[in-house]
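Sequence and structure are no longer studied apart. To make this concrete, we show below a single chain and its fold as tokens.
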Amino acid sequence: MKVSVVILNWNGRKMLRSFLPSVVRYSAEEGVEVCVADNGSTDDSVGMLRREFPSVRIISLERNFGFAEGYNRALQQVEAEYVVLLNSDVEVTEGWLRPMTDYMDAHPEIAACQPKIRDWKRRDAFEYAGAAGGFIDKYGYPFCRGRILGTVENDEGQYESVIPVFWATGAALLIRLEDYHAAGGLDARFFAHMEEIDLCWRLRSRGRLIVCQPQSVVYHVGGATLSKENPRKTFLNFRNNLVMLYKNLPEEELGRVMSVRLCLDAVAIAVFSLKGQWESAWAVIRAYREYRRLRSSFAPSRKENLQKTVENHIPERIKKSILWQFYARGRRRFSQLFDF
């Protein structure tokens, strides 16, 4: 099998019914299979798939393992050169796979790739979670080519080149299955959010490359599980970001970066409080408490990552503060930051 497109589902019958038809239609190529890995759904998702999408392979998991472990278990049952981790709320377009697989075939040094991701609701705009490829600043804040913090650009053809990126979004991530397993897959302890950035960091530090191939285009609803304002999502994003930094930062940077992050996140707590978003403020506090509780359990992972690192100074991990660029310098478009 050349490509397995794997959609993780949990009680998402309605979403599958809406978006799976485009995946089935536009993935109908030789050597390509479409799979749905079901995380123990109770809403008749599996029954609906059997009745309405008989060509789709069903991988049944016994319970909801979350995004990370759900994919880890599902991909143990897949045999393909490439796998695509595809969210259930993604509409793909005609020929979406070919530009990515052709580019990967021609560049064996590349471990993973993502398409250009537009907003399903505002189809001329990039989508928040991925846009045209992900980067990270020196303090661990992710941003994208086409999206900085909460500012999302319209797609006006300004980011059509294939470029190396720091991370590819888990909403539509094409990865060599061999690289996925060699890097240890997604960290199941994250449960959800930031796990694909953590995986990409491991790949990059071990000398493998990540790219965005904008000639492939998909449309993502985004926020279909948790909205950006949901306190649970705030908790997971902050906790997992801190864990990711601890797992992957070079030794000489760890203390300084974490000290700055503590100050910056204290400001975030204050901002949430001033806006009356008390649950979000408390979510950040809980994230720090949980990070401190869990940190020692991640020490073996940090040791392994540092031992396997061959590239400490990753160019796509930008040596600037995106918060300073955005708020102090007013740079709110990716093209204002870098000459790509």
